[in-house]
Amino acid sequence: ASQSVLTSEQSIAEIPQAMDDFFCNFLVRLGMSRTLDCFQTEWYELIERGVITVEDAGLVPMVYTRNQQLETENLSLKKDLEDYKCSVSKTEEALLKMTKERDFHRMHHKRVVQEKNRLICDMKRLKAHYASYEPVLKQLSEKYQNTLTKNMLTSLERDKAVGQVTGLQAALEGLESGYAKQTAETKVGHDCMRRTEFEGPTQKALREARQQKFFVVASSSSDAVKDAEKMAKRDLKDSEFPVDAEGTSYFEHAEEHTQPLKSGEYQLSGILKVHDFAVT
Question: From residue 36, how far is each of 22, 27, 47, 74, 77 by CA, in Å?
């Protein structure tokens, strides 16, 4: 009883363990639940019978308890070691990934620095190149302004010249129309004078007879009106067909067609045989 009492100086690990507790813990650790039930049933049955007492079972030696503690610590340490290995492997992977990213960013930074230096050189070169264009641009701007001024003056002179040409053309057309009218009147007067001057007595008699015949025929019938219109359209100086006493039908037929016909109005009216052999 004195051995099972806890003191303030002893720890839980240093307390001796009973044999049945040690064996039960062993079976629990191995997962032998049915064996544990059988052992407890038989163990407590023997104690109730008085065959075995707790003092007879005794305590487990400290060596076994210490071995069990060491084994438990060993398992715990192994588990911690596995956890540490997993964490170390993850850390190594993360470190490797970060190293690759660092190398990538370092190379990118170097490339960016090189491009920046190249762009700086290009900017300096372009500034020097464009600086040489400023005098040329200034000169071209002055030429452009001068050209605009000349173009404006030329446009004004052109508009002025166009106005003068238009006025001259209008005046010329007026003069030409007046001259043409005067020339036509003069020509008509001369023609009338020439006709009256150069008309002989025979032509004068024929003209008077033709006019009398025209008035007589016009008053006779409506068909004669058309013939009178045709005769009026003819020139008064045209000679008439001679009057045939025998009354040749061909001359009468030809007299009906003294006016020229339009294209497509001619047609065959008869055939006259005048020779038997070929004409050479």
Answer: 12, 6, 16, 25, 28
Please report, as a single letter, which amino acid is at residue 86. C
Please report the sign of the dihedral spanned by the C-alpha atoms of residue 173, residue 179, residue 182, residue 184.
negative
Round to whole Å and give the CA distance between 82 and 230.
140
DSSP 51-115: SS-HHHH-B--HHHHHHHHHHHHHHHHHHHHHHHHHHHHHHHHHHHHHHHHHHHHHHHHHHHHHH
- The token pair at 252 is 């009468």
| Cα–Cα distance, 257 to 226 (Å, whole number) | 13
Strand residues in 189-245 grouped as ranges (E): none
Gap between the Cα atoms of 112 and 118, Å rounded: 10
Q: What does the alpha-carbon distance between residue 81 and residue 79 come to, in Å, rounded to a whole number?
A: 5
Question: Side chain identity at 19, as an amino acid letter?
Answer: M
What residue has token string 């045209």?
Answer: 238
Q: What residue spans define the domains of the chain?
A: 12-91, 201-234
Q: Are 225 and 218 in contact (CB under 8 A)?
A: yes
* Distance in Å from the first CA to the final CA of the chain: 184
- Whether pTM exceeds 0.70: no
Q: What is the pLDDT along the chain (280 residues), one digit of tens a residue?
A: 334 444 444 455 566 777 777 778 878 888 888 988 888 888 888 888 888 776 766 777 777 778 878 888 999 999 999 999 999 999 999 999 999 999 999 999 999 999 999 999 999 999 888 888 888 888 899 999 999 999 999 999 999 999 999 888 888 888 888 777 777 666 655 555 555 555 567 767 777 777 776 666 555 544 544 554 555 445 444 455 455 444 455 545 555 555 555 555 666 666 666 667 666 6
